[in-house]
Amino acid sequence: MKYVGMYTQIRRNNMLTIVLLLMFPIIILGMIWIFLALVNYFGNGYYDQYGNVVHELDAATVNYYFISTIPWVIVGVGVWFIIAYFSNTSMVRNATGAHPVTRMENPRIYNIVENLCMTCNMDMPKINIVNDQQLNAFASGIDKNSYTVTLTTGIIDRLNDDELAGVIAHELTHIRNRDTRLLITSIIFVGIISTIMSLVIQMMYNAMWFGGGRRRSNDDKNSGISIIVILLIGVICCAIAYFFTLITRFAISRKREYMADAGGAELCGNPLALASALRKISGDPGLANVKRDDIAQLFIIHPQHFAPGMMSFFNSLFSTHPDTKKRIEILEQF
Questions:
Q1: Active-site amino acid positions
Q2: In sequence order, what are the beta bridge partners of 130?
Q3: CA distance 54 to 48
Q4: At what angle do helices 59-86 and 179-209 cross, to 10 degrees?
Q5: Listed range (126-140, 162-176, 221-235, 270-284) with the worst mean pLDDT
């Protein structure tokens, strides 16, 4: 199997990373404008001559407040993103429970990684291991100082050297193609939106259940209802923004896995070994302690336990991984 198009893939991933960096502030600002518009619309109600409530949107007022929030949003999101971007290594490590390994601790894995890196003339990434008997592996990082290949103890124990070489070569290809940089950017974006949604929902919950005692005047009650309505609007806006961040996952083409399979097969020189590894991994994929679907998109095979039933079907529409059987069939053709 001849691996082609690596530099094209690198350029594509670099371009998509820039596009995501530009799109995300736009999504956030769009969410804020919709929030301000809805609050203004429902807050400007009055009764007409027939006693019906009429709502009007004061676009000038909405735009005034929107423009005044732009600098704060850009600075806030920028600072948040920079912190998350450069702490991605610890973020992934904490989410998966991984720990670094040295040549002395595991010479078998270290030598496989080192030999493959020498073959393709790339810098040696860090090597992490997760104490988990399930089978999985992934690459992460944004630059040569943070690039990491992580393996579970299960995949180390249950795969032979040729199969492990195929898996590691697959992950090294993700690093060479800059796939990990694009994925980490996507994870940070979804994480920011998820955090905002969680805060708004918590605020709405507190307003509903802990907003005050029983003895309240009508004005207090109306004020409490207004707060709940505003927070509910915030939840809806956050949900819309979160949906758009999911759509950005379409930018992370499923072809990247086929490209990594092809590059891994070429690098290790044994497509059948990688196909055999994928078949074994598909029988018991996942990491037991990982509950975040955004982190799971890094895995060589995405587990399906995150969303059973109809949600599993919905998530498959946004899946960043192609069907494993198809990947194996392609590898076995060579």
A1: 171
A2: 152
A3: 7
A4: 120
A5: 221-235
